[in-house]
Structures are given as C-alpha cells and as structure tokens.
Amino acid sequence: MAAPLGFFFLLLLRLGPSSCSNVYIVYMGERNPELHPALVRDSHHGMLAALLGSEQAAKDAILYSYRHGFSGFAAVLTDSQAARLADSPGVVRVVRNRVLDLHTTRSWDFMRVNPSHSVGILSESRFGEDSIVGVLDTGIWPESASFRDDGIGEVPRRWKGQCVAGDRFNASNCNRKIIGAKWYIKGYEAEYGKMNTTDIYEFMSARDAVGHGTHTASTAAGALVADASFRGLASGVARGGAPRARLAVYKVCWATGDCTSADILAAFDDAIHDGVDVLSVSLGQAPPLPAYVDDVLSIGSFHAVARGIVVVCSAGNSGPYSETVINSAPWTVTVAAGTIDRTFLAKVTLGNNSTYVGQTLYSGKHPGKSMHIVYAEDIASNNADDTDARSCTAGSLNSTLVKGNVVLCFQTRAQRSASVAVETVKKARGVGVIFAQFLTKDIASSFDIPSVQVDYQVGTALLAYTTSMRNPTVQFGSAKTILGELIGPEVAYFSSRGPSSLSPSVLKPDIAAPGVNILAAWTPAAAISSAIGSVNFKIDSGTSMSCPHISGVVALLKSMHPNWSPAAVKSALVTTANVLDTYGFEIVSEAAPYNQANPFDYGGGHVDPNRAAHPGLVYDMGTSDYVRFLCSMGYNVSAISSMTQQHETCQHTPKTQLKLNLPSITIPELRGTLTVSRTVTNVGSALSKYKARVEAPPGVDVTVSPSLLTFNSTLRRLTFKVTFQAKLKVQGRYNFGSLTWEDGVHTVRIPLVVRTMISKFYVNA
C-alpha cells in the first residue's frame, strides 16, 4: 500500500461583506504517484464537501485542483474554515495567498552565441530543437514574427500540453513553435473581483496585452527576424537564445502587473504534467522573504526540479542594496542582470555651440530648432521643496513655468528615476528633459518628449550655462546606436544583490546575463504612447530580461545533455562563467560609486554559453540533498516528509547547509577552523586529471585535500575537502576568493565567500 495521500490545498478566501474570508495556501506535500489524477481531484472535492456540508458548496468554492506535480486545490472559504483545515491530519502548511510582481539583436552576439558560427553551443545543440521552454508571464502575441515555425520539425511526441481557447486566441494560434498556451485568472479574481476588460485593456486568454511575456518568450526562444528594431534603434537580426526550441505559455500575470500565488501554482502543476524542460519565471516577491515551505515559487519549483525541470528565476530589481535578492531557493537558477556593449547616444547642443553627449531611447520627431532650457529648482511649485523640484519629483514643478521648455533635472537620494522626471515634465507640458545622474547604462524610456540622461559632470556644465545666460537654449540630436565601444559586461545598478536574507549560506544570485536595454518582440495591441502608437519590438531592462537569456541557454544545454539534472545544468553555468569583461578587466558593478563586482552581485559571474556546454566537471545534487537542506532550516519533519512522500529523519543543524553540494562555498560565520566537502562528477574526457588552484579570501587560509583529482572510465565521482582557517581574530566583513580545478582544457571555478566572526552575538557585517 502506498504512503498516505499528500495534498496541496490552495484555499483562496475572498474578502466579503462580513470580512471573514481571505486567500490561503494549505500545503500537504507530494501527490501519491499510485493514484490517478482524477482520483486526486475527487479527493479534493470530497474534503471540501465534508468541510462545507455539501457537494454543491464544494463545487462553488473550488477554483483549482492540483493533481499532477503535487496535490491540492484552490477554494474560496472563510477564515474559520481555513483554520479547521490547518488542524486536519496531514496538513503541512497553511499560507496566506500572496500577490507577486513582474520583474535582442545584440545580446546573443555579445555572448558569442551566433548562428553563423559552425562550432559552438548553437550548432552542437541544433539550435535547441525539441527543448521545451515554459514561460510563466503575461502571455504571448502569437502573430509576432519571432514565433514563426519555419524549419521546425513536428511537435515532440512526449508533449502533453494544449492550447486553451479564449478571447482572440484559439488552437490556430499555436504552431510548431508555440506548442501550448494556457491562462490562469481564478486566483486573481478571488482577490480582486471579476476582471473588467472595459476599464483594463486585457484579453481573457493567453494573448498578451502588455508585452512583458512576449518580450521574455522571444528572448529565450524567438525565431530569427531580420531588420528588427525599436523605431530604428538597435536594428539587426532579432533572435532568441534557442531559436528552434518550443514554447509553452502559461499566462499567470495580468495587465495590472499582479500575479497571484494560486494561479502560479496552477501553472507549475500543469507545466510539470505537460512535459516542459525549462521554466522561465520573471516574477517574484520583494523582501521580507517567506520561508521556503510558505513560498509558492519555492514549492512549485521544488516539485518541478524533482522531476528534472530546470527552473530559472529573476533575482529582482531592488539593487544595488545588499540582501535584496529574491527567489533564493538552492534548487532554482537565480539570475542577475548585466550590461552589454551597446548603448544609444544623442548630442545636446547649447546656444553657445558647446556640445555634449547623453544616453536616450527617444526616437520620435525633433522640432529641428533650439528650445529654451530651465533649471528645475528655479521653477518649483509653491508647495514643493527645492530637493523635490531639483529631481522633478511628481507635482513639484510650476506648470506655467514649465510649459514649452526643456527642463534640467538632477537625481537626488529620494528621486533617482529619469522616468519619473519625464512624466512630471510631460504632465506640466514641457517639451524635453535632461536628467543628470550617476553613471548607469540603464536608459529610461521616453516616447512623447525627448529625454537625455547625462552624468553629473555634464549636468553641472549645463547648469552653469543655464543659470548664467539670459536666454539659454538647447537643441537635441537624433539618437544613434553605438556598438562595441563600451566596456561590458557590468552588473546593472538595479539588479538585486546578495547575500540571501533567508539562507545566507546559499550563494545568490547564481549567474548574471544581459538585462539592460534588451530588444525583443512586443505586443502591438496596446499603444506605448499617444505619439508613437504600437510597436512590434521594444527595448526594455530588468532581471525579467536577464532571466530568459539563461532560460534560452538552458534550452540549448538540455538539447545537448538531456540527461543532466537541474543541479548539473546550474553547475555548468556557474563554474564556466566569466569574471572578466571583454577587455580582460575584472567586471565592475554599477553603484554609487562603481566598484569591483563580487559573487553577491553576479554569483559565479557573467554567463558564457559556449563554455557551459563543456564544463568538464559538475557539482551534482538530487532531491534528497534539497530535503536535507530543508531539514537544516528547522522546518517541520512531517511537512518535509509530505513534500517527498518519503519518511525523513531530520537534524536541525545549520552547519549542514554548508554541506549542500553547490557550485560555491559560502560561510557566513567562520570562527577558527572549518572544513567543507564537495563532490564533483566528471562529464568530460574519461581519463583526466584536475589540479586545484586557490585564491583565498583575504584574512583566511584555505587548503584543499586532495589537491589533485584523477578520473578514469570507472571513477567518475570524487570528493574533496576544503579547510578554512581565520587568520585574524576580529569581526570581519564578507571577503571573496575562488577555487578552480584545471586539467589543461577545462577551467572549473567556484566562488568562495567567507565572513569571519568572533562573537555569536555580533551579527552585523
């Protein structure tokens, strides 16, 4: 007889007139594999009927029945009913439903993933053919040229998914590229009420109304599209990382920007059943982070990874501050954002013929004449202070004095966004913005009026001119695409940084990829501005853009190495990543000021797809390793056992987190001496010898034993130990080093991150 049935209940409790309902998740673990999904669904109805008193009440209350990757259901209930379920035998966890947020031509060339090359990961993987990439996002615009299926073979026989019909979407919108499309709104409507498509431009289907999902899907697996550009900028051949991979679309986010955990879990459940190889998830929840057993992304991804699916998540856009990284479960691949070697520049010519250069994405019409320029602080509204006006904070400017003028704004501590300044000036009927700020390559979008971003030095020169002349004027030049003249990659300013606030011994993010000014397909359904209308391709930035770059690389790797586990794939990415830029300098991190990047910025480094295809050694893991990690976090033993449908014996010893076979070693508290072990699997030449090379973190002695690993045809896995000894008995900060194994062909590098401690009561960095 099989183990008792594990359930995963998502109880969505909608706030009603009596204010007695809420949205909950009740987690009861892994589905019993011996039970048919239909029987699992019936058990959900039965449990609800017993609780609510009738089959009809259960039918009215239930939203989803999860019966593939895990077991459970979603339902609308009262708080007291949820509490009763929390006390029911076998219930692992009852969690409040949460609302999560959404987080090109050049980027793949920049990473040397080029279809014209006869060697490399693209050709070896056959362009990712037959890998299936699932995308949890805002849907897809199926008519985009990026989703043509020219030259792609028949749909893989293992595929079990389907195209679900809806508003302006039916089976004919799927093809050999888009092989599945589903949409999930029951959880959203349980929170917010019925979607009103009269007030909100949205499609009740998998069709994308906002563009975000189309952008991420085409970045990961879009077909080759010639002459793509955003209104003439970034022109070239647009393509995804795995142009022959298949796409399965799971629309869980809506035009409001909201994505509920109930809908997300339904998508995970279906994706596991459908047969995806990769899940690309460009969304998450900002800190404080919930426990892994309370977080739907962690739970859904755990079950996906247990079935061999690689789950790739965005790291978040809360940088450059430390401990802001999200999606930090050790079984996911968490992606930071980096820059590429492309930017968009325009000239700014003053009335005295002095010329400066700034960054811009404005591609509209210019008046072709000089315009009057004013300093924002000089035209403050009556109720605004000087600091707000200086940065063009919303409502801070006098509309009468702004009208018809270009406004010079300066970034402040409280207002750092050029987009906010543009919107403020536009609403006050200004005709242009110059925004002075710290150096960053992330360019704000401006569609209706020209906007140029300059550094403080240029801004100061413009201010001196503006305030010294009786009639200061400025003229904008047209934007130009500049290629190959910038040092890159750099870690983007906005990219969330580690360490993980939930499990600091697990290094996050794992890897960095292009995420700044990325051109990809967009939905023409909604006009991006009143002046421009709709576009088919758009430039956007965020870890939402870097995540699908890694998803595309993973699709290529899975085509080449279909039997690699998710941990092996992550290891290949991390251990072969670059820590040097294209000029051979150490990668830097955009911040104020710039500084040398470290593993809390980019994990193993910036992705190198071609090297990841042949890593030599991998640090592999399986579900049992992740279970031991959950035990070390102090979670309930029965809860963990239910997750896996196996009896687990847990020991709550935080130090066991250090034994997790990650492609990194992070020690948040080093007191004296500590030894950590790792196991590597040879995936290269059977007969090979690897020698260790250590770059010790400052203030720490590091020794490796053995320092030589010898593999043969029968010996593919070897374990080594790394001993850390603090040289200084002082309270330290985090310091960084690396351990590299080399055999003359492969370079397998992992980060070493150590903080020395002298008192268990002193915890500040």
DSSP strand content: 25-35%
Q: What would you report as the Rg, rounded to the nearest angstrom?
A: 27 Å
Spans with pLDDT under 50 lasting ≥5 residues? 1-20, 761-765
End-to-end C-alpha gap = 52 Å
Question: What would CATH call the homologous superfamily of the largest domain?
Answer: Peptidase S8/S53 domain
**Count of domains:** 5
General shape:
globular
Biggest sheet details: 8 strands, mixed
CATH class of the largest domain: Alpha Beta
Number of helices: 19
Average pLDDT confidence is: 89
CATH architecture of the largest domain: 3-Layer(aba) Sandwich
Share of residues in helices: 10-25%
The total beta strand count reads 38
The CATH topology annotation of the largest domain reads as Rossmann fold
Q: Short summary of the structure?
A:
This protein is an alpha/beta fold and 765 residues long. The protein is 22% helix and 26% strand.
Characterization of the model:
The protein is of the alpha/beta class and 765 residues long. Helix content is 22%, strand content 26%. The strands form 9 sheets. Strands 17, 18, 19, 20, 21, 22, 23 and 24 form an 8-stranded mixed β-sheet that branches. Helix 1 (37-52) crosses helix 2 and helix 7 runs parallel beside helix 14. The two termini are 52 Å apart. Mean pLDDT is 89; it is low at 1-20 and 761-765. The active site is at residues 137, 212, 544. It holds the Pfam family Peptidase_S8. Residues 659-754 form the Subtilisin-like protease fibronectin type-III domain. Belongs to the peptidase S8 family.
